[in-house]
Amino acid sequence: MSTAPVDHHLDLTTQDILTYGSWGLTLVLLGVAIHLGRKERTPFYALIVLAAMVAAFAEPLYDAGLMLYFYSTEGMYTHFTAFGIPQPVWTHSGYAVLYAAPAIMITRKIRLGTLTRNGLFAWAGVELLMSCTFEMIGINGGAYTYWGPHELRILDYPLVIGVLEAAQVICFAVAATQLRERVKSPVGLLGLFVLFPCTFFMANFGAGSPVIIALHLEDTSRLIVALASLLSIAFAAAAIRGASSFLPTTAGQSEAAAVGSPVGGFSRTRIAADMPTGGPVATPSTAK
């Protein structure tokens, strides 16, 4: 089996683009999240950004499993190393831009009752395109590589990676919305810091388990890796389909949270005019 390209030259220009570009976008994203939070009187959106950024400390687990290596020659901006993989400082801002930004948009649309199941599938496609764009820049620009025997690559980017990332963002966004509807105070929203890594590794190490095992097999082959990649893609698609079951087929069909409700959005308004907040009432035709 080949080994990680520890001596491969790091392109410093690409590093600067990823570092300053992603951190600049992260500051903008935090501003937007705080603005939305003030409108709805909740720290929910800002905590999504912070949860994603903190979760980036677990990036070495992902790198080891899916065989990613950040080029670490002289001039690398790094703050820690784990599993023999130096971590660039832009991983935290990268998580915010690539994962938290779409999650904020998705959760807000769900809250407003404007996102349907088909709309969620469309957002999965958007996240896939975002992942492909971001990672193709990093890979082909000389910042890092997926050095394992990956198959089904586009411009050296394994397609299975983008699908898994789309699945984890969708699952996180839907799960975060469910958490917001159920917690009793802003303190409960701190669960986002646990929820993000749970959904991240559920998708990448759960749905991604076939391809991870195939990559690390002693006597693996291109066919095995290709078939395992397709199986992981199918598992990721199933996860997205499962997450979509929490959404209505038509906009405004289900209960929606009141935008002006306090902190976590702990009270919800009923869409149906004939349905009081306490639930259905007995009528002469149904009462016994």
UniProtKB/TrEMBL annotation:
<keyword id="KW-1133">Transmembrane helix</keyword>
<keyword id="KW-0812">Transmembrane</keyword>
<protein>
    <submittedName>
        <fullName>Uncharacterized protein</fullName>
    </submittedName>
</protein>
<keyword id="KW-0472">Membrane</keyword>
<feature type="transmembrane region" description="Helical">
    <location>
        <begin position="159"/>
        <end position="177"/>
    </location>
</feature>
<feature type="transmembrane region" description="Helical">
    <location>
        <begin position="119"/>
        <end position="139"/>
    </location>
</feature>
<feature type="transmembrane region" description="Helical">
    <location>
        <begin position="20"/>
        <end position="37"/>
    </location>
</feature>
<feature type="transmembrane region" description="Helical">
    <location>
        <begin position="223"/>
        <end position="240"/>
    </location>
</feature>
<feature type="transmembrane region" description="Helical">
    <location>
        <begin position="44"/>
        <end position="69"/>
    </location>
</feature>
<feature type="transmembrane region" description="Helical">
    <location>
        <begin position="189"/>
        <end position="217"/>
    </location>
</feature>
